[in-house]
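User: Some background: our group keeps a shared notebook of sequences we're curious about, and every so often someone picks one and asks for a predicted structure to add to the entry. Today it's my turn. The entry only has the sequence so far, pasted here. Could you supply the structure so I can complete it?
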Amino acid sequence: MNKLLKPYYAVIFTSILTENTEGYSEMAENMEALARQQSGFISMESARAGLGITVSYWDSLDAIKSWKQQSDHLVAQQKGQDTWYNWYHIRICKVEREYQYLLKT
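Assistant: Of course. Here's the predicted structure to add to the notebook entry:
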């Protein structure tokens, strides 16, 4: 995560997949590559072990809104609802402060 001087936003996407995940990994990779090209995108982190969690970081609420309405992303959202997800939950949060720890070797 880059050090930013102003607050930024996190979109937290948690999900549980159906048994039919054909094409899911490829679409997820494509959506991450596409998100990285969007104005206002900062970074993304993702993990899946039963429950999937993807957090994307954006510089503004307008950037998040534009990403949600991006045409290829709309197609992926519909495919997710129709095929890949049993459940998902999206939270949008303002990040006001951050810090990290790095083990020194």
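Suggested note for the entry: The chain has a mean pLDDT of 94. The radius of gyration is 15 Å.
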